[in-house]
Design brief:
Length: 614
């Protein structure tokens, strides 16, 4: 395969994307490439298809057909470049498969219009691309075969968050069928892009009978750049024939290589593998070994590490306390916090419970700085909050009294064990929780943490958008007194989250917020609460109109989509009056885009009013 020729063709197609597909007609640059590809087509059918595609693209055609042909040729070319990655022609059958590029089971039913924005986002730079790509993935657009090469290409995107998202979410969703494509295109001397490819391979796994993929992995593990070697080695943990080699690599003089080998050995979880990981944990590679255990915490390894952790926490120190001795202590304890971050084991639960209840029995805790002690106790609290026992809950109450930073763990555990009424009484119905104005810094800190904890419990996230829990869940799981408590504290977000029909203060609170709020961002929460309150259409309409009339139209830069949607949903019987009230507001807008949007809304409302029966 002539890589230079394909890259030249890619450059010409990119030029036409920018300049417009109409310029492809009789384009001499394309015609110059056509015979070269046709000649290569005698050896591999994919080149013949590219040659035919170029001929159709540069030949006579209408604008729409030419745009479609440009897309088809680009798809085929990107499939070759992004998923094949070879530099020599292979057999006809394998070449044809690689050219089509992508796992089976994908479709091509989406229109080009739907795909174009995503393809452009992954072919250019600039702001807003991350949101386009994540939304496309959530909507299932990447199930279209034509986006597969772009998903692979995204691994090397200049915006690292987008590239990481592709590695973490998009490519794993294709399943293990893509592993051979990723490995065939691997540049073993590459950088972060190649690491991401291998991270995807590691997540999906390589089939035991896929000899070609294993061969490519071993080559990368032996000959690649250091970080590529490490990532490739980490992929071999599920293959017993490489265990001896993994142990050998775990002793390599290069740290990245040792890290990759330890990660694979933790997955192996044989006696020999555990011995080597434990040896590294208590030696110079304690943190890499802890990372390996943390990613694959086997019961057998935990049973070796938990007693060692307890021993170090109980250790009595008799020397002179100074910065150096504290740093040494933390260096000994930190690896355990890494190794146990996703671990579950009865002995770990016992240790964490004892650590909280009998802290004096663990002298090492008292020697730590606040941040380090909080990290250890925070890990214990996270573990205990999901243990459904009275002992665990009492231990969390104890932590909560010591430091408000632990309140959200206790609150979460209490919600699991207490009735809605009992939860409210404990945290808001009596004592300091009833105070509207905190009388001490500690009381204020507890109230702030309580509100933060409520926020964590009563919202769910769809993508990056915060949504309410279903209304029946709110009414079943939350005492209605919380709503009044939050109205008193004027927290519009949480009022919206827990709003329910029947509260006599809710409407007045929302009306006051509309009149007095200077933060127009809260429109979403105001009307979320209004909807949940069960109010009639007239009440909702009047509050919406007051919201729009309160805006400083000569200063605002945009309208939120929710606002436009709500105006368009105004009931027909109010449409004529609403148009009369909104039209002068549009005239006061400073920006033409806002004027145009408002005039469209007004026009729609007038047409709906005119269509109503007299």
């Amino acid at each position: 395969m002539s890589t230079m020729l394909l890259q030249e063709l890619q450059g010409e197609l990119r030029r036409l994307y920018i300049a417009g597909s109409d310029l492809a007609a009789d384009d001499f640059r394309l015609k110059k490439l056509e015979p070269k590809l046709e000649q290569l087509g005698e050896r591999a059918p994919v080149f013949k298809r590219l040659s035919e595609g170029i001929a159709a693209l540069s030949g006579p055609s209408d604008a729409e057909a030419r745009a479609s042909r440009l897309q088809d040729v680009s798809l085929l070319l990107n499939s070759v470049l992004s998923t094949q990655g070879a530099t020599a022609a292979r057999s006809e059958a394998s070449e044809e498969q690689a050219a089509v590029g992508g796992p089976s089971g994908l479709t091509t039913y989406r229109s080009y219009r739907q795909l174009a924005e995503v393809q452009n986002a992954l072919s250019t730079s600039g702001g807003g691309r991350y949101e386009i790509v994540t939304s496309a993935h959530q909507e299932g657009l990447f199930k279209d075969l034509r986006l597969f090469p772009f998903a692979v290409k995204a691994l090397g995107d200049t915006y690292s968050e987008l590239a990481d998202y592709a590695a973490r979410e998009i490519l794993p969703s294709y399943g293990s069928a893509i592993v051979p494509y990723l490995l065939e295109g691997l540049n073993i001397q590459g950088g972060r892009e190649e690491e991401r490819r291998l991270e995807v391979v590691r997540r999906l796994g390589v089939e035991a009978d896929d000899e070609r993929s294993l061969e490519l992995l071993v080559r990368a593990a032996e000959e690649g750049a250091d970080k590529v070697r490490a990532a490739a080695i980490a992929c071999l943990g599920n293959h017993p024939e490489f265990e001896d080699k993994l142990i050998e690599w775990s002793l390599d003089k290069k740290k990245p290589v040792r890290e990759g080998a330890l990660a694979a050995l933790a997955v192996r979880n044989t006696e020999a593998a555990r011995d080597r990981v434990y040896e590294a944990f208590v030696g110079k590679d304690s943190v890499p070994a802890a990372e390996a255990v943390g990613a694959a915490p086997s019961a057998e390894m935990l049973e070796r590490l938990i007693p060692l952790y307890e021993e170090r926490l109980r250790h009595e120190f008799t020397g002179e306390e100074d910065r150096k001795s504290k740093d040494k202590l933390w260096k000994e304890l930190e690896p355990f916090t890494i190794a146990f971050r996703h671990a579950e084991h009865p002995e770990l639960g016992r240790l964490f419970l004892d650590l909280v209840v009998k802290e004096a029995d663990y002298p090492s805790l008292g020697r730590l700085d606040y941040a380090e002690r909080t990290r250890i106790m925070g890990q214990a609290a996270r573990y205990l909050q999901n243990i459904d026992t009275d002992e665990a809950l009492e231990a969390l109450y104890l932590l909560e009294e010591q430091d408000p930073n632990f309140l959200h763990y206790a609150f979460h555990a209490a919600k699991l064990r207490l009735s809605p009424a009992e939860l409210y009484e404990r945290y808001a119905g009596s004592g300091r929780g009833r105070l509207l104005n905190a009388i001490s810094k500690k009381t204020k800190a507890k109230q702030d943490k309580l509100i933060e904890s409520l926020r964590e419990e009563v919202f769910v996230y769809e993508g990056y958008v915060r949504q309410r829990l279903p209304q029946d869940v709110i009414e079943r799981d939350w005492d209605p007194r919380w709503l009044d408590w939050l109205i008193d504290r004027r927290d519009i977000q949480l009022v919206a989250a827990l709003a329910a029909p029947g509260n006599t203060r809710l409407l007045k609170f929302l009306q006051d917020w509309v009149e007095k709020s200077s933060n127009k961002y809260y429109e979403h929460y105001i009307f979320m609460a209004l909807d949940a309150g069960g109010y009639d259409d007239k009440t909702k309409y009047e509050l919406l109109m007051r919201w729009m009339e309160q805006k400083e139209w000569n200063k605002i830069y945009n309208l939120y989509p929710n606002e436009v949607e709500r105006m368009l949903q105004i009931p027909d019987r109010f449409a004529s009056e609403a148009a009369d009230r909104l039209e002068p507001l549009a005239a006061n807008a400073q920006y033409e885009g806002i004027k145009e949007t408002m005039n469209e809304v007004v026009g729609t409302l007038r047409r709906r009013a005119a269509s109503m029966p007299s």
